[in-house]
Amino acid sequence: MGIIRDHIPEFEFSIPVAIVGAGACGLTAALAARDQGVDVIVLERDKRPWGSTSMSLGAVCGVRTREQIAHGIDDSVERFVADVMVKTCNQADPALTRLIGERSGPTLDWLALRHAVPLKLDFKWTGLGHSNPRLHIPPGRNGEELLALLANACAKAGAELMTEATVTDLYADACNRVLGLRIERPGGVVERLGCEALVLATCGFGGNHEMVAKHIPEMAKAKYFGHEGNRGDGILWGMELGAAVGDMTAYQGLGTLADPQQIVVPHPLMIEGGFLVNTLGRRFTHELANISGMCVPVLQQPQGLAWVIFDERRHLACLEHSVEQRQLVEVGAVRRGETWAQLEKACGLPEGSLQREDADINSSRDAGRPDRFDRSFVGLAPLSPPYCAVRVTGALFHTQGGLEVDRAARVLRPDGRALPNLYAGGGAARSISGAEVTGYLPAVGLCMAITLGAIAGESAGRQCA
Ligand SMILES: Cc1cc2nc3c(=O)[nH]c(=O)nc-3n(C[C@H](O)[C@H](O)[C@H](O)COP(=O)(O)OP(=O)(O)OC[C@H]3O[C@@H](n4cnc5c(N)ncnc54)[C@H](O)[C@@H]3O)c2cc1C
């Protein structure tokens, strides 16, 4: 894997725009390049496109979308930038953040109107760092549907998709202009494809254990719950071509991955009044202070485990809209008790522990004040029997550091000059999460994939048009 500079072959086939990776970023880039009237191919290592995009909830944040305006939400780029800066303690790149604020809304509108990818504004995930409702979700509320909608749109737009095509190397000249790609196909067949511009949509490096250990040592031993094909290929090629990278220590984590079933426990259960205890039956944190950063305190608990505690009323409400909640039931991950004592027994928690924590929450709610972790339950109905629980652990979802790009999604060198014909987006590019796990705002991952993907595809298309 790397950059080949000697013995550049005669390419049998050549295409104006090549894109590596068929997740949300690559497919959106393909649509944007096709809109510029140029031929494009998306190369994907898997048999069918999946990526972290399909594993996700499919929620994309967007600013000043038609959906927001139709619901009377008065959002602004300034408010988005301010939210990102608060969340990241001013560590996010202000220019990139503003670009995403400006372009995310028009990009979601363009996908809906021109390419029949309709995402609806969601009100279940309000707050959590966004000062306005900004999350846009596909009708079926999952990432698999988002990817299918994008793939269908690509087929209609005439963007070619080649699956089972692992790009192993790039060919480049002495000026770091990408000339083509080396592709491995099933049965050891090797193909070489020339290109005029290349978009890197290979996501981050969560599936590359060496890179995780180097850049994010605190998660070196944690579970990785993103797509295994995200091995940092695009980032490594970019670096070999002389690109700058930023925020390589940043990542999105989650403290509520069902253990051992590996299904994400829907967060609305906690937003609406559920809480976390460790295996000693003790609460240990403000459950909503930081969704991404929650993986750290969870992993610090005995055995790196915790329990999400909620009640059957919330469970049934969640079942209506959450695929994950249904899956949790199917695999038997949800424990149940008619009383706190029964649930404690079902979970192997110390006698009286859940009842004590619940009483503590209720007394702060009744007094109209935040609890000992500064979380307020005021306005939320108390949990009522029967009660439920799911055992969880902390995991790494996807990395947030990557290649530095400019307003046209061109990959930049450390001195700020752009590489001649290289573009990047999604998890392959530096995000707007700052340098820490705590800087990740909900739905920014797909926002970076779709918004930068659209910009990269458009710019690459223009370069070749
Ligand atoms: C469980 C989970 C839930 C999430 N929920 C959300 C959410 O609701 N909202 C949100 O904004 N973000 C969410 N995220 C993050 C989000 O999924 C990612 O930020 C986003 O999918 C990145 O898109 P992408 O196109 O960059 O990468 P991907 O969708 O991962 O696509 C990259 C593709 O590149 C391919 N590839 C890599 N290297 C090569 C190569 N050498 N040759 C050929 N192909 C290659 C891979 O096989 C893969 O298909 C979630 C992540 C996880 C894991």
Structural key phrases:
FAD/NAD(P)-binding domain, Flavocytochrome C3, Chain A, domain 1, six-stranded mixed beta sheet, nine-stranded mixed beta sheet, 465 residues, binds flavin-adenine dinucleotide, alpha/beta, 15 helices
Written description of the protein model:
The protein is of the alpha/beta class and 465 residues long. Helix content is 33%, strand content 22%. It is built from 15 helices and 20 strands. It has helices at 24-35, 51-55, 66-70, 77-87, 94-115, 143-157, 209-215, 233-240, 268-271, 295-299, 312-321, 323-330, 340-347, 353-366, 444-464, and strands at 2-4, 13-20, 40-43, 60-61, 120-121, 135-137, 160-162, 166-172, 178-184, 190-200, 223-224, 245-246, 251-258, 275-278, 305-311, 335-337, 387-399, 402-403, 410-412, 418-424. The strands form 4 sheets. Strands 1, 2, 3, 7, 8, 9, 10, 19 and 20 form a 9-stranded mixed sheet that branches. Strands 11, 13, 14, 15, 16 and 17 form a 6-stranded mixed sheet that branches. A 3-stranded antiparallel sheet has the order 4-6-5. The longest helix is centred in the first third of the chain and has 22 residues, at 94-115. The radius of gyration is 23 Å and the shape is elongated. Flavin-adenine dinucleotide is lined by residues 20-26, 43-46, 49-53, 55-60, 166-167, 201-203, 225-227, 229-230, 233, 264, 397-398, 426-427, 443-447, 449.
Please mark out the parts with pLDDT under 50 across 5 or more consecutive residues, or reply none: none
Instruction: Tell me, rounded to a whole number, the average pLDDT.
Output: 96
Query: Would you identify the CATH H-level superfamily of the largest domain?
Result: FAD/NAD(P)-binding domain
How far apart are the first and last residues' alpha carbons, in Å? 30 Å
Query: Could you estimate the helical fraction of the residues in percent?
Result: 25-40%
Evaluate the radius of gyration.
Answer: 23 Å
**CATH class category name of the largest domain:** Alpha Beta
Tell how many strands the DSSP assignment holds: 20
What structural class is derived from the secondary structure elements? alpha/beta
Query: Number of domains in the coordinates?
Result: 2
Q: Strand content of the residues, in percent? A: 15-25%
**Chemical compounds bound to the protein:** flavin-adenine dinucleotide
Biggest β-sheet description? 9 strands, mixed
What name is given to the CATH topology of the largest domain? FAD/NAD(P)-binding domain
3D shape: elongated
The CATH level-2 architecture of the largest domain is identified as 3-Layer(bba) Sandwich
How many helices in DSSP terms?
15
